[in-house]
Amino acid sequence: MPTPFNQSVIEEFRARGGKVGGPFEGSELLLLTTTGAQSGKEHTTPLGFVRDGGLILLVGSNMGAPRHPDWYRNILAHPTVTVELGTATFEAIAVPAEGERRDRLFERVVAAEPGYGDYQTQTSRTLPVIVLERPAHAADIPEEAASLADKMVQVHLWLRGQLTHVRDETEAYFEALAAHRGPGAPPAPGLGLQIRQHCLAFCDALEFHHTSEDAHLFPVMAGHHPELRETFDRLAEEHRAVARIQGELAALLADVHGTHPERFRAELARMTDELTRHLDYEEASLLPLLAELPWPPGPPTGEGERRH
Predict the structure, then answer these.
(1) What is the CATH number of the domain that holds 273?
(2) Containing H/E element for 56?
(3) Which residues form the Hemerythrin-like domain (predicted)?
């Protein structure tokens, strides 16, 4: 639960289209909703931010306290966040900047809001700078869906696109690593936070999609199409196989800075192969049936009408 003060800020923000008075009069705020690292529950926090060109930057200042704020620990566990900015609401992936980029962005933050520099002098920890990235969407993903088949295609295109994005980032990392390492070089350092956050966001979206299918779509369809029992059994088993690989990836990424790059690369290749086969089979098996169902779903059908 937000503190009483934060709750009052949240309520005023939403009631006044993103504007807040009192000590925040004239300042830009946003509402960041994260998923609890331990609880899995949603938490909304009002935060100041800095614009840097097209980027939205947050700082895990915690007012100079010795510990990172709770919302920062949440985004390391679940990078996908909901952002309320003015009257707009959108999803983003929270990616902490690293190394030289973090230092450069922090300089820009302090130039815009000097108070963050004061917070840094009050603590020995390095204040993290977080970039809120809008998820990349493939250009060929349709914006509208007229049927449940269209919606499934949208989701599958998004998943394929995000997986390709993570794979491309990973291969670029290995190419850069090879270019700077010679014979007798030390073991590769951990994966960058950018790859880690993008992969965790992909895994969260994939888990939500498959859990929803297992809990809702598949049982309903199986009840109306008993002739496809073997198909749904196969799809459920494929979900379990993908979930096992997802668990291996999550275990590798649990250590923020110690992920073993070569093992991650191998598990990512397994995920690519397994998920691609699954999505191809699911589309071939279910899209013809789903094309008959409208999206969004309409009200329940009356007696005597055909049900799916």
Answers:
(1) 1.20.120.520
(2) strand 55-59
(3) 150-290
